[in-house]
Specification:
By secondary structure, the chain is an alpha+beta fold. It contains four helices and 16 strands. It has one domain: 2,3-Dihydroxybiphenyl 1,2-Dioxygenase, domain 1, CATH 3.10.180.10. It is about 15% helix and about 40% strand. About 40% of the residues are buried.
């Protein structure tokens, strides 16, 4: 395992209606809604869930036109997603050759839902990133977050990263996916007071901190945006 450059600190989802989305994802993740003030809501971990299982809801005037680039995989409490459908999810695809449901939340963000068939708890268990170079990007994120890379054929996963709250961070090869913008991004807390180590490793600056947002917005070598709060901020 490499020495991590940063700690994982949850996800951010672009939304139009934060209250509605908070209610839905509270149910899907088994969490609780926290009002951070100024219209900012987050879904915090429920009892027994990982501490960094945080979903921040960022209200924007216009969400990115396509959310296919990054999605969540969750494990259901039972055999079917009836409770989530009743709460506003749309059924996109039933299990077939792939043994999971594809659902969309009330704002049409797609995610995968696996039937609960053993004693593993329900809730999120992996983050999936579609990219052009799955193995290269997995190695890059293993260097950033720690952990190690598992080869899954054409795909690859980062496993065992400190502070990463789920089983896997999966990188799935999809040529041309970089033309889409993701509604889901992830947040990091830096080990250093500046992002120099990440920039030297190949990240690029999208936006610098300002009075309203005291964090950096960076992009990894595959163009995936993430937020970095330096240490001490």
């Amino acid at each position: 395992m490499t020495h991590p450059m940063a700690q994982f600190d949850g996800l951010t989802l672009e939304v139009s209606d934060a209250a509605s989305q908070a209610g839905f994802w509270r149910l899907a993740l088994g969490g609780r809604v926290v009002d951070e003030g100024d219209g900012r809501l987050r879904v915090a971990p429920g009892p027994g869930r990982p501490a960094r299982e945080i979903l921040r809801l960022h209200t924007v005037d216009t969400c990115a036109p396509d959310d296919a680039r990054v999605h969540l995989d969750i494990r259901l409490a039972g055999a079917d997603p009836g409770e989530l459908v009743a709460a506003g999810a749309r059924l996109v695809r039933r299990p077939g050759p792939d043994p999971w449901y594809v659902l969309a939340d009330p704002e049409d963000n797609e995610f995968c839902a696996f039937p609960g068939r053993d004693d593993r708890p329900p809730g999120m268990f992996e983050l999936v990133v579609k990219c052009a170079d799955a193995h290269g990007l997995a190695r890059w994120w293993a260097a950033v977050l720690g952990g190690h890379v598992e080869d899954e054929g054409e795909a690859a996963s980062v496993v065992g990263a400190p502070e990463f709250p789920w089983d896997y961070m999966v990188f799935d090869p999809v040529p041309g996916i970089e033309r889409f913008d993701a509604r889901v991004r992830w947040n990091l807390t830096g080990r250093d007071p500046d992002p120099e180590a990440l920039l030297e490793a190949g990240a690029t600056v999208v936006a610098k901190p300002d009075r309203e947002n005291p964090w950096w917005v960076l992009a990894d070598p595959g163009g995936n945006r993430f937020c970095l709060t330096p240490s001490g901020d």
